[in-house]
Structure formats: C-alpha cells, structure tokens
C-alpha cells in the first residue's frame, strides 16, 4: 500500500530580478511515497533546484516568493510553519544533499563534530551518544578508519569521501525524506556509481524516500521508481520509470531519451540533440513552453497551455498531442508505435 509522505500542490515560485519578475516554477504538483525514489529530470534552468529549495524553504528571502500552491509533509503545510519549526524539520525529517559537498560542510570544523551537531540539536543526544552515532554513520557510508577520520577537517577528504560525509550527516537523524540535488555530478564515473549504490543501500536500510534531481537519464534508470520531467518550470510528464522510458508521450521526454546514449545500441547511430534552447522565463506567455522547439507543434500549442492528461493510472502528460481532437497523423511515430502495441 503506497503511503504518501510529501505532496507538492500547484506550486508557483517567482524571483525578482534586475530585468523584472520571472516565474521559475509554474504550477508544479507531485507526490512522494514512503521509501520510494522520485527523479526530477530536465535541462539546466528548468526549475528542479528551485523546486527542491522551496520544499526545504531555503530560497533566498530577499528576491523569491512561493506565490501559489502548497507543500504538504505528512499532511501538514510546510509553508505555514514558523521558521523555528521549519528548522526542526530540516535535517531531522527532511534532509538535503547538494552537488557540492562544501555547501553543507563547514571547512573550519572537524567532520565528526559537524555530524554530532545535528544529532545534538535535533535528537537532544548527549555528547557521548552523539559521538557513537556519528561513528556508526561514518562506518555505514563506508569511510575507512572511521574513528580517526571523525577528527579530520573536510579538506582532508577526497571529493567522493566528502560526499559520503555529507550523506552521513544528512541521514544521521534518520529523515523520512532525502532531497539529493545532482549529488554525484561533480564526481568521476566510478565514484558516482559508488555513491549512488550507497544511497540505494541506505534507503533500503532506513526506508527513506528520495527526491533525486538530475539531468542524467543513466542515473535515473539506475535509481528511480518514478520520474517527473520538468521543462521551463512545469512538470510536462510524470510516471513510473517504465512508463517514462518505454512509453514516453511528451515530445520533450522523447527528445531527452533520444539524446541519451544507450549501451546496447549501434554506436554509429548519431545521438539526436534537442535543437534550440529553453525559453526566456521573463517573457513566457500562454501556450506550451516547448512549442518553439517541438517537432510536432500545432497552431494550438502557441496560444493555449496544455493541461495534464492521464495516459494511464498516474502517468500524466501535458501536451496537445494527447487531446482527443488531435488527428492521429499528427502523433509522433514513437508515440503511435508504443500506443498501438
Ligand atoms: N536566486 C535566484 N535569483 C533569480 N533567479 C533565480 C534564482 N535561482 C533560480 N533562478 C531562476 O530559476 C530558474 C530555474 O533554476 P533552477 O536552479 O531551479 O534550475 P535547474 O533545473 O535546477 O538547473 P540546473 O540543472 O542548472 O541546476 C533559473 O533559470 C533562473 O532563471
């Protein structure tokens, strides 16, 4: 039985910039179930990190605002919590790991002390018990000579080991939700695989739900149960891993998949990049934001924003091609092929 732990409902996030107001997240909705991994994918600038930071309430105060929608954690609105209450939730119930481990680490403090700090603050543990738990976590994330390394500073660790320390810190209080924003992008491929394996292993041991933000579909294939595809501040398609990989319906999702190298495919076949670039969020009006780059654009796409259509169960897509009035000959071959199977 799926148990929903986090729910983002029709969230809109705006920034005041020098050139005017931009809406970076434009009506995002998704649910996260206990213990599952939801991957949020999309090109740079599509609003993945803003979505994550909104959940953590870590957006810059001076120029950003969640203008609409809600974020429900265990049915409580996070947006209504006081700063103090939110600080209690951050790190203990919902944790975040960033691409650059140094975002989370204090360079002037020994890592052991940093892990212990969270435990003492959130779980009121004594110094001795917190030390024991910090050591346990260092061992759990696979840091050799863990006891001695508790006494080291962040710069004494390699990039991969530093990210392990951050994961130890993020999971020390056994949070129910872990948001990992490009956690392995800065690491080389073998270390990347080790960190992802570690996250999967810890997720099983601790029953953590993970929101994994990435632009790497290979990482998604290895990690995700469900996938949300973001484009220009909106989720344009979401579904299970299989639905997104084997029955993609949005031309943007198709484009992402076609631009990804596949292991079992003829290497001489060229990859197909998505031509053009994402729209300027400052001037985005009505219509589908992908219309200018889409190979299947129809007249309606430029003037009216497509609403979510249910493909099956929880697989949804926001695209005019799904509309019953769209002639079948307009559908991309891949969509037709998959749907007529
Ligand atoms: N602090 C900020 N001030 C102004 N605009 C911002 C700020 N942070 C984000 N934005 C805007 O929000 C958009 C979405 O940014 P976001 O970081 O969420 O993208 P992303 O999908 O995570 O991309 P990346 O993969 O490059 O991290 C950006 O294009 C930018 O216009």
Could you characterize the architecture of this molecule?
The chain is an alpha/beta fold and 341 residues long. Among the domains are: 103-174, no CATH class; 253-339, no CATH class. It is built from 12 helices and 12 strands. The strands form 2 sheets. An 8-stranded mixed sheet has the order 6-7-8-3-9-10-12-11, sandwiched between helices. Strand 11 (308-312) and strand 12 form a beta hairpin. The longest helix is centred in the middle third of the chain and has 18 residues, at 189-206. It is globular and about 70 Å long. The mean pLDDT is 91. The structure holds adenosine-5'-triphosphate.
Please outline the helices and strands.
Blueprint: E1 4-17, E2 20-33, E3 37-41, H1 48-56, E4 64-73, E5 76-77, H2 83-89, E6 94-97, H3 111-123, H4 127-140, H5 146-149, H6 159-171, E7 177-181, H7 189-206, E8 209-214, H8 217-223, E9 226-231, E10 234-240, H9 241-246, H10 251-258, H11 299-303, E11 308-312, E12 315-318, H12 333-339
Helix pairs in contact: 3-4, 3-6, 4-6, 6-7
The structure holds adenosine-5'-triphosphate.
Adenosine-5'-triphosphate binds at residues 15, 17, 22, 24, 42, 44-50, 60, 63, 215, 281.
């Amino acid at each position: 039985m799926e148990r929903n732990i986090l729910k983002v409902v029709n969230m809109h996030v705006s920034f005041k910039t020098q050139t005017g107001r931009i809406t970076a997240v434009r009506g995002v909705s998704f649910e996260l179930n206990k213990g599952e991994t939801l991957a949020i994918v999309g090109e740079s600038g599509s609003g993945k990190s803003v979505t994550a930071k909104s959940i953590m309430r870590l957006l810059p105060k001076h120029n950003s605002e969640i203008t609409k929608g809600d974020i429900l954690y265990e049915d409580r609105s996070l947006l209504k919590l006081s700063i103090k209450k939110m600080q209690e939730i951050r790190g203990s119930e919902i944790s975040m790991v960033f691409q650059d481990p140094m975002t989370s680490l204090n360079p002037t403090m020994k890592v052991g002390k940093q892990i212990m700090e969270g435990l003492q603050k959130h779980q009121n543990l004594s110094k001795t018990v917190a030390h024991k738990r910090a050591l346990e976590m260092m061992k759990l994330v696979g840091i050799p000579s863990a006891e001695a390394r508790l006494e080291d500073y962040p710069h004494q660790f390699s990039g991969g080991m530093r990210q392990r320390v951050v994961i130890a810190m993020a999971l020390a209080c056994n949070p129910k939700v872990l948001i990992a924003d490009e956690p392995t992008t800065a690491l080389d491929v073998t270390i990347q695989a080790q960190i992802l394996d570690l996250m999967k292993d810890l997720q099983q041991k601790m029953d953590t739900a993970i929101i994994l933000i990435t632009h790497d579909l290979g990482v998604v294939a290895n990690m995700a149960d469900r996938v949300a595809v973001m484009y220009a501040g909106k989720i344009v398609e979401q579904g299970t891993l299989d639905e997104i990989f084997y029955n993609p319906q949005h031309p943007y999702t198709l484009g992402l998949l076609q631009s990804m190298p596949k292991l079992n495919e003829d290497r001489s076949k060229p990859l197909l990049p998505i031509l053009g670039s994402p729209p300027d969020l400052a001037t985005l009006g009505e219509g589908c934001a992908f219309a200018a780059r889409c190979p299947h654009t129809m007249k309606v796409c430029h003037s009216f924003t497509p609403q979510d259509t249910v493909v099956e169960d929880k697989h949804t897509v926001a695209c005019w091609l799904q509309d019953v009035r769209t002639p079948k000959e307009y559908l991309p071959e891949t969509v037709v092929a998959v749907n007529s199977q």
